[in-house]
Amino acid sequence: MKKPNIWTGFTLVILCFFLLFVVYPLFLIMYQSVVDPETHALTFDYFTKFFGRKFYWSTLVNSFKVTICATLLAAIIGLPMAYVLRSFKIPYSKYVNILIVISYLSPPFIGAYAWIQLLGRNGFITQLINSLFGIQFGGIYGFAGIVLVFSLQSFPLIYMYVSGALKNLDSSLNEAAESLGCNAFQRVTQIILPLVMPSLLAGSLLVFMRVFSDFGTPMLIGEGFKTFPVLIYTQFMGEVSTDDHFAAALCVIVVVITLFLFFLQRMVAKRYSYAMTALKPMQPVQAKGSQKFFAYLFVFGVAFIAMLPQLTVIFTSFLETVGGAVYTGKFSLMNYENTLFSKDNISIFNTYAFGLCAIGIVVVLGILISYLTARKPSLLTNILDTLTMFPYIIPGSVLGIALLSGFNSGVLVLSGTALIIIISLTIRRMPYTIRSSTAIISQISPSVEEAAISLGASEFKSFRKIMVPMMLPGVLAGAIMSWITLISELSSSIILYTSSTSTLTVAIYAEVIRSNFGNAAAYSTILTLTSIVSLLIFFRLTHNEDVSV
Amino acid sequence: MSVSIDIDNVIKKYEDTTVINGLSLRIHPGEFFTLLGPSGCGKTTLLRMIIGFNSIEGGTIKVDNKVINNIPVNKRNMGMVFQNYAIFPHMSVFDNVAFGLKQRQVPAAEIEKSVVEILDVVKIGHLKDRMPTQLSGGQQQRVALARAIVIHPQVLLMDEPLSNLDAKLRVEMRNAIKNIQQQVGITTVYVTHDQEEALAVSDRIAVMNDGVIQQVGSPQYIYQRPANRFVSTFIGLSNIFKAVVRKDGAQHILSFGKYQVPMQTLDAAAVTKYAESCGAADIPVTVAVRPEEFTVHMDGEGLDAVVNYSVFLGISTHYFLTMTDGQEVEVITPSDVGRIIPNNTAVKLRVEAERINVFTEDGMQSLIIQTEDINGRRIGGEDA
């Protein structure tokens, strides 16, 4: 019965793509981490080197400290934010929701750089405080700064997860509890909290994984406080004493940790999940008295602080500077003249071009892969399923390093090309697109396709004429979200770029490192505006204010 | 021209479990044939083997005397109506119905004509340009039906097409389906678990359980002369009793202890054969009595029972009784003018000997004289 057909062909081609660009480079990294470059003998020196010296292993401890604190804070902000917005009528809550999503979609390192502008050594707020109170506050660098940026950048994810769960919570559950004698406080602790707990945990673990592998933020605001991703970057890209094999060993360590977290998340999600669909969702009620005051204060306060980095960036982009770093206090369009309208604005073009190319590939492959794995189960498609989910747990910097090591020399040299950046963007975004496409397919009854086949369409024709058009609206909506994430990608691009393939995020990062804050602000504003416009298109197309990423 | 379907000894296996093991059926040209059985009995599996979504692990299926085992689905020329209708949500009613014709490269003008025609047959001509989301369940059902028959399939297959509709619409649609089927005259295989639906629409019914055909026959015959205990309890309601059959000269006496019923309908040959395997003078049997096959009396002979409660339903009155041995019995009587028997009244129940069914003790085989064989052929009739 099972004959090789068109689907087997597709599966094999896609499988080859992933073997070449995911499996091979990662194996190379694993190989390098345990092999001596001179003698080619098996060695565990790189791992003993890491765990032997405090200078190295302390970065791992630092990473855990930062990540745990930031995740907890994100939950502490995100959870009540979701609850308050779902249970009370808050004016402009729709816009607050959009602002929260925007603050989440901008790259974390822009938040870091914006907070340096505000609370750094010469930050606006630092200067204000110091002159008001006559103290010498040195700015929030190191641990506090990283945690601040990460918690503010991550709470929206918790907010979105919990808010989604609350939406599925039927108000009759609350009413039943009330009729059984629960007061408002007990209802929150005994009914609502346990029911949103699975989403809270899932969101938290996702935050944990993202924060743990982010490198831009600690790089900019960490100063002496070094985290693990920073160590990887400096070992691989640093100006002095780089050691590819040691960096490879570090990559292996971080992959092991994220792998562990991934399975932990799976286990938790499987164990604690409730099937809920609300016939009658919770209706926000009018808050009264002090309740109203605190609810408004909390919601608008958090939204304001979350948006503060964006506002700072947009504001400073219109300030005149001397040498990019010192503000003269006058408004001007100078920064845009130097970036957007300069002859050398390749990074803007690259961002759009790379992003669009990657999205195109992601959409086509995503539809095909999710269709193959969901509707044509076989050993091959099972392998494909596992393989394509793999990049989900590979931090961007590791993928960048792996691709660079794999295609730096030999038969296929891709380093320095636009292609390698597009490939890395494609691979990084693929798992998300596949997941959402699979969800879309599961909504389509197999009998729709069977109907087409029974009416005389071939399998491929029914895929093309029935499945693809039915999936397309959902996939395209997902593609817009992917696009926003791709244009703000830094961690693999920073490793793979050359001067001709620089992107906006790379340019922003480079300008910040060069202390050219004016140009960085202008670039960031362009990026933010692109994200906002894309997000508005997304809302317009989907008629939906719920964003899943 | 209508075609026959011959299913010969087919086998269906999933991995190592055999779901259907050597099933045979013959479906006549132009017939409305129903596969009826509880969920999980293999009826949908069989239907999907006919259309080709399920592989066939053994035996053959012939349509119009040609083996179709290895013909791909899209070349089989069968129309299928799905449980959830499977309307293409991104296409208008017209495009949905035209889809199959487009696959067959029918010229546009002809497509237009056929579609309009068939939409009139299913009475939704005015909805031609609507999108599926703007249609009610019944209307979607009509689109699905039109889409399946517009391609002039050899065979029409329907998989529980009415199960997603509400009760009233279900009755309306089943009449519509029956009418359209007769109008088009196409050989139809219909799958359902709803016995009333099966009785209402079918020319013949195959009752299935555990992948095995229990009985094939006309709706009336299956109801009145079930082949075994399963059929008698699955189709309609039957009160089941243990009793014995005794031979009294040439006559058979069915004995429920004190209450004796002379039987004219027992198949002497079958009883003799069964009696030999039992080896006793009192042949143990299982008796199935439908609620309407009882008469209720205040005295005289009969089974002793006490009325627990009654339900007055206008046309008929249902009595729920308990017998002396504790067994519960349901009885339906026409609502006569006069008083309903009060609760806790002791009554005598008599059976209508010519209507009741008698099986071997294990309930596997009927001992009644058969006028149709197990495959629904009239015994001694023209169709044999």
What key phrases describe this protein's structure?
heterodimer, A: 549 residues, mainly alpha, two-stranded antiparallel sheet, 2 strands, B: 384 residues, alpha+beta, Rossmann fold, OB fold (Dihydrolipoamide Acetyltransferase, E2P), 6-stranded mixed beta sheet, 20 strands
The portion of residues assigned to helices of chain B is: 10-25%
Query: What is the architecture of the largest domain in chain B at the second tier of CATH?
Result: 3-Layer(aba) Sandwich
Number of helices of chain A: 23
Tell me the β content of chain B: 25-35%
Strand order of the largest sheet of chain B: 6-7-8-3-9-10
> How can the largest sheet of chain B be summarized?
6 strands, mixed
Q: Largest sheet of chain A at a glance?
A: 2 strands, antiparallel
Task: Write up this protein.
The complex is a heterodimer of chains A (549) and B (384). Chain A is mainly α and 549 residues long. Chain A has a domain at 318-549: MetI-like fold (Orthogonal Bundle), CATH 1.10.3720. In chain A, 73% of the residues lie in helices and 2% in strands. Chain A contains 23 helices and two strands. A two-stranded antiparallel ribbon of chain A has the order 1-2. In chain A, β1 (319-322) and β2 (326-331) form a beta hairpin. The longest helix of chain A has 34 residues, at 54-87. Chain A is globular, with a radius of gyration of 25 Å. Chain B has two domains: 5-225, 3-Layer(aba) Sandwich (Rossmann fold); 231-360, OB fold (Dihydrolipoamide Acetyltransferase, E2P). Chain B has helices at residues 43-51, 93-103, 108-121, 137-149, 167-184, 195-201, 219-224, 229-234, 268-278, and strands at residues 5-14, 17-27, 32-36, 58-63, 66-67, 78-81, 155-159, 187-192, 204-209, 212-217, 239-248, 251-256, 259-263, 283-289, 294-297, 303-312, 316-323, 328-334, 346-351, 357-360. In chain B, the strands form four sheets. In chain B, strands 6-7-8-3-9-10 form a six-stranded mixed beta sheet, sandwiched between helices. Chain B has a five-stranded antiparallel beta sheet with strand order 13-12-11-14-20. Chain B is globular and about 75 Å long. Chain B starts with a strand and ends in a 24-residue tail after the last strand. The relative contact order of chain B is 0.11. The chains are: A mainly alpha (549), B alpha+beta (384).
